[in-house]
Amino acid sequence: MDVDFGNALASVAVTGVSEASLERLDRRVGRAHERIAAGIEDRTFGYASLALPEETDPTEIRTALEGFDPEAVVTVGIGGSALGAKTVTEALGCAGHHTLDNVDPVETARLLEELPLESTLVNVVSRSGTTAETLSNFLVVREAMTEAGVEWTERTVVTTGDSGPLRDLADRHDLPTCSVPEGVPGRFSALSAVGLVPAAALGCDIEAVLEGGAEGRQSLSPSLFETPAYAYGAVAYALENRGATTNAFVPYAEALEPLSEWFAQLWAESLGKDGLGQTPVRALGATDQHSQLQLYRAGRKDKLVTLLRPREREDVPIPDTDVDELSYLGGETLGGLLDAEFEATEASLAAADQPNVRLEIDRIDAESVGQLLYELEAACILVGELSGIETFTQPAVEWGKRAARGLLGGGEFEEAEAVEGKTSRRVE
Amino acid sequence: MDVDFGNALASVAVTGVSEASLERLDRRVGRAHERIAAGIEDRTFGYASLALPEETDPTEIRTALEGFDPEAVVTVGIGGSALGAKTVTEALGCAGHHTLDNVDPVETARLLEELPLESTLVNVVSRSGTTAETLSNFLVVREAMTEAGVEWTERTVVTTGDSGPLRDLADRHDLPTCSVPEGVPGRFSALSAVGLVPAAALGCDIEAVLEGGAEGRQSLSPSLFETPAYAYGAVAYALENRGATTNAFVPYAEALEPLSEWFAQLWAESLGKDGLGQTPVRALGATDQHSQLQLYRAGRKDKLVTLLRPREREDVPIPDTDVDELSYLGGETLGGLLDAEFEATEASLAAADQPNVRLEIDRIDAESVGQLLYELEAACILVGELSGIETFTQPAVEWGKRAARGLLGGGEFEEAEAVEGKTSRRVE
């Protein structure tokens, strides 16, 4: 990706960062880069994520999928086990990928009714093999297939860790499997089997996604002024310290909408620690100009707005009209209108003293998307280094998991008792 | 809706609000209610929104739609002209509603290819009749229909103001029309033709939606302790003043996902003014427990988390399994699991000193959804009253509109020059 942080400079926006500050920060970026590079080299926990472009073997994925030519793929997974895969297939326009990444019974039932089960590939993803939501959905899907007379063992692929109930199940039924990579937290696993199986199953070019990731790897250097990923990370960090506790992430492309969701997990789960971390806000251009822009311009000065667009896209001409007030649109294209709105919004934020950063990719294709995912991960890891937090863990989610398990009779957990003791103050 | 703000009290969370403060605040709520009630009575600009359940005539909508029995409806509109309609159809499960609420050429082309144009109803919505995105998409859709041999004038319904290009067009081609209500900003128009045409065209019970709205109207009283809408608004306001500058809105139901988007516009565009306004964050339970919960528990103490669920839903049993570690799930239901996670998450937030509010509706049906929309609007209006801002305007979005128009050659605008003068600081 290319980064333009001109509108995040203190000379443009009062809550921006000065060039001089960034130059001082760059020394810390250099040291952070050394740690990151060593972590990649040694495949240290977490940092190993940035080694995925070389570690992931597309042949392993293709082999697991041999013999399948599904009309639809349903990924049964949640969080990092679903978002990367959804992001890749949506960005590449691989039609037919569905996700069961919630336990809403209405949605699960609806999807099972809609899917052509006899030509659907079920892609179950859970590192531990015990994720309650994923396993529950899988049990439901499996039963629905059996009831529909479809042999589920012939239509299921499993991506999991080296051991656990899903691994056992795969062994017992001789199911094709892929491995969740070692040392890579779920939200950093898009460039592994976790993120690539559905795209591969639907005929997309996962090799090019990995090549894009490898280019991202090549782009890392010890200076933010020479590394787009670090430029973005360092500016986000500097702005967070200057009060931008929110990061509104606004792609100007519908195909990148799941990327916002993926980014939101990456940012929130990695950086939301020790009372720190920007709150990621998912938005979409140009749509959210008619929803969020009022707030971004006139609300609190606590935001960084990240605007992302492809430089080229397939376009659609706007037909001429004889309506005077609209004649300026005739001869334009939808893409031209979208680009004008992108630049107008960016300038309108700057004019309101609202710092913003522009990210650009050449076009939305397999290679650029692979590189973009890689570089946003590197940006996030840099912010974690600069903030001095543990980027790769998510300890705060355990409390709720234990409580839920206790409530469902899955063991004695004191957290479940806290649920029973809730303070109520009802207005009905 | 029922509101439980027990977990937002200062006795539970350090950044919460005390009962004593709320009692003092209630006097201001009483005075605000007087202004709101008088505004509704007099149909004053903005407040007129809360009169829609009595003002909207479902027969006008049904008459405009006479003779149509579409397989699909495509709403061409943006912001408030699309979100309410999307929220209603999705919540009620009216299948077949699509929206063109962006000018992404790839998405517009994809949708036009997918839709059965000969049995699609085009629903164009713009109060002014000049919204660039909407009119551009409409020109493209119209041409696509003509190219497909479909007479667009026989498959188009228009919802617009009393005058403007869309009104002229409707007159010229004798198209069926509905009116955008007077005195009602787009984001408050869900309970008018703007929000109800697609649901009506797809056979849903819009009368029940309006009845729900009317119940919301009945529920308003001068005290927050007796009015769920005001309880939610007052607590949100009190928490914003205590540092909760973010409001994460988390329905535990996929069918309510567009409601989060609708809420985000309602909250951001109404309250994002004068350096105030909570930043709405769209999230979804249980999915985002595996994405955002780490941040909500361990990040900055600058959040209110709003948890919303239906008390009843169609459920799906989880089949038994012989896997020991998962046996506790057998005999449960997906809905039971979702509810356990809802309560576990709520308690886990409280245990981390993170204020949260529970909103509940009986079930997701036309009446509850109508009432919910109404009550959230009333809550928002109350926050605006308490904050002393102009809730019903959105002046900050004009700058960008002028800039974009200037860039596209639609006139001379100094804003367009500011776009050309952007400060660049690129890293590639």
TrEMBL record, chains A, B:
Subcellular localization:
Cytoplasm
Catalytic activity, per the record?
Answer: alpha-D-glucose 6-phosphate = beta-D-fructose 6-phosphate
Q: Which GO terms describe its cellular component?
A: cytosol
Q: Which Pfam families match?
A: PGI (PF00342)
Keyword Protein transport attributed: no
Pathway(s) per entry:
Carbohydrate biosynthesis; gluconeogenesis; Carbohydrate degradation; glycolysis; D-glyceraldehyde 3-phosphate and glycerone phosphate from D-glucose: step 2/4
Entry annotation: catalytic residues: 269, 290, 401
Highest rank taxon of the organism: Archaea
Q: Name the enzyme's class.
A: isomerase
**Keyword terms of this UniProt record:** Cytoplasm, Gluconeogenesis, Glycolysis, Isomerase
Q: Which PROSITE patterns match?
A: P_GLUCOSE_ISOMERASE_1, P_GLUCOSE_ISOMERASE_3
Q: What is its main location?
A: cytoplasm
Q: Which terms does the UniProt entry file under GO BP?
A: gluconeogenesis; glucose 6-phosphate metabolic process; glycolytic process
Enzyme Commission identifier(s): 5.3.1.9
The record's annotation in SUPFAM superfamilies points to: SIS domain
**Gene Ontology molecular functions:** carbohydrate derivative binding; glucose-6-phosphate isomerase activity; monosaccharide binding
The text of the family note is: Belongs to the GPI family.
Function in brief: Catalyzes the reversible isomerization of glucose-6-phosphate to fructose-6-phosphate.
Entries under PANTHER family matching the protein: GLUCOSE-6-PHOSPHATE ISOMERASE
**Name this protein carries in UniProt:** Probable glucose-6-phosphate isomerase
| Organism taxonomic ancestry | Archaea, Methanobacteriati, Methanobacteriota, Stenosarchaea group, Halobacteria
